[in-house]
Write a structure and sequence with these properties.
This protein has 18 helices and twelve strands. By secondary structure, it is an alpha/beta fold. Helix 17 links the parallel strand 11 and strand 12. It is globular, with a radius of gyration of 23 Å.
């Protein structure tokens, strides 16, 4: 039975994509097992919920709501769910129908014209770093312009401090365990509610608003973290055409609130310590082009091109001449292991090394140099911002590169649909982003990618040689 959870989720999604009514009884069965089995939790969230979200259609959003309501309903029957059940009754949202109607009202109601007396804006994290950079990196800029006197309070994981160290932003940290139990994922909203209530104290009606960019913290807008009239909900999965990007859609949604167009690209603000560290590192490295690579896939193996693609890609760049390549390992043991394997493979052909944030690599003379790195998202973001180019898969680092105008080449593997690719593709104000879609099972044009790397490398050498 345990091995069948993923298959049950796959069957559910197959029915969905065939236009049939999905089997909600299957959701109930997986949900029951998920109370004690982490594999069933993964089948529910990664296999079904994320699959429906990634479709980026109104139907997908509505079916996803029904799945989440089934999950919520089961958790509310448990002892751990009693407090949440009481909270929902107090909010007048004790039934699935009430939650469904509230969500539909938030979707239908466009943002009201901006109220100029707002004193505090509560901004929910999207939980994943890339989504925060892409969407909240736009929201922060435009909210600051609309309400220059208001304080923005970011509610979410600690990574928000690393990418949004803006002077008008304050942070309330909350951890969201993407691999946690079914109960934890649902009842954690109570912690968010407590923060919202604390931040709401002392403020009159019309002085505070909760901005929900389709956050996992609110179970994608279903749970009432604030009163509906004080909630601005961005239905990111249900708007836009086939080729619209989330950058364009986020701006378009904000235009309704602002009453005018004020297009912003994603942006980051790294802490001073990260910027200082990156500057110190640059002074330590040889005076030659710096290229950052990150081969993280966020646990989604379909995004990775099979070996020996990465090794050939690194080698193609190092063969071109004096260049420093930094392989970012991220924070996971698997990422660190993969980077160390690449270093070991190329050891002997090129100088290699590994360093962590706070430390510096050994001094090297000009020439091909390969370095592994492990550090915070703020540190690698600041390094990417100062690099000549970035290469990687569809991950948060592609959005860090785009937000900081660093030329990037991204292999966009495993995109479930054309809409998904266009929604999440990185967008930069200066262009210079090559996002290469790769459908599931499709063979990568390895030589084409290597040629692109070498083309970029040639550009780097020309820049380095310019007076």
């Amino acid at each position: 039975m345990r091995d069948s959870f993923a298959q049950m989720a796959a069957t559910f999604m197959a029915w969905y994509f065939q236009g049939k009514d999905p089997d909600m009884a299957a959701v109930d069965r997986i949900c029951e097992a998920a109370l004690a089995d982490g594999r069933a939790v993964a089948a529910l969230y990664r296999g079904i919920v994320e699959g429906l979200c990634d479709d980026f259609t109104e139907r997908g959003m509505l079916v996803c709501n029904e799945v989440l309501l089934r999950i919520l309903g089961r958790v509310l029957t448990l002892p751990e769910g009693r407090e949440l059940a009481g909270f929902l009754r107090h909010q007048g949202c004790a039934s699935g129908e009430a939650l469904r109607n509230r969500h539909a009202g938030l979707v239908r109601r466009p943002p009201a014209p901006a109220v100029r007396r707002l004193r505090r804006i509560l901004l929910l994290s999207r939980v994943t770093i890339g989504a925060d950079v892409l969407i909240n990196g736009i929201l922060i800029q435009r909210l600051c312009r609309l309400h220059p006197g208001a304080e923005i309070v970011c509610i979410g994981p600690p990574h928000m401090r690393e990418v949004f160290a803006h002077p008008s932003v304050r942070f309330r940290d909350i951890s969201y365990d993407r691999h946690g139990s079914l109960q934890t994922r649902v009842i954690q909203c109570l912690e968010v509610c407590a923060i919202v209530q604390q931040e709401r104290q002392g403020l009159a009606a019309g002085e505070v608003v909760l901005v929900d960019p389709d956050s996992r913290l609110s179970q994608l807008g279903l749970l009432p973290l604030a009163a509906a009239e004080e909630t601005l909900y961005f239905p990111s999965r249900a708007v836009g055409g086939e080729t619209c990007s989330l950058v364009a859609l986020t701006n378009r949604w904000l235009d309704q609130w602002a009453g005018q167009g004020d297009f912003c690209f994603p942006r980051t603000w790294f802490p001073d310590r990260c910027l200082a560290y990156a500057r110190h590192l640059m002074l330590t490295l040889p005076a030659q082009p710096l290229v950052v690579m990150n081969f993280g896939v966020g646990g989604s193996a379909v995004k990775r091109v099979r070996d020996p693609f990465e090794e050939r890609l690194i080698g193609a760049l190092l063969r071109r001449g004096p260049v420093t390549v930094i392989l970012d390992s991220g924070k996971s043991p698997a990422g660190r292991q993969r980077v160390e394997a690449h270093l070991e493979t190329l050891r002997g052909r090129y100088p290699v090394g590994f360093f962590c944030e706070g430390g510096l690599p050994e001094a090297q003379t000009a020439g091909p140099l390969l370095l592994g790195f492990e550090g915070s998202i703020g540190a690698i973001g600041a390094i990417i911002a100062g690099a000549a180019a970035f290469f990687g898969y569809d991950s948060c680092c592609q959005h860090l590169a785009a937000a900081n105008c660093t030329p990037a080449t991204v292999i966009f593997g495993g995109a479930p649909s054309r809409r998904f690719y266009h929604r999440w593709r990185p967008v930069s104000p200066v262009g210079r982003i090559h996002a290469m879609p790769l459908a599931g099972g499709q063979e990568i044009d390895l030589q084409g990618v290597v040629n692109l790397v070498e083309e970029t490398a040639n550009s780097l050498w020309r820049q380095a040689a310019a007076p």
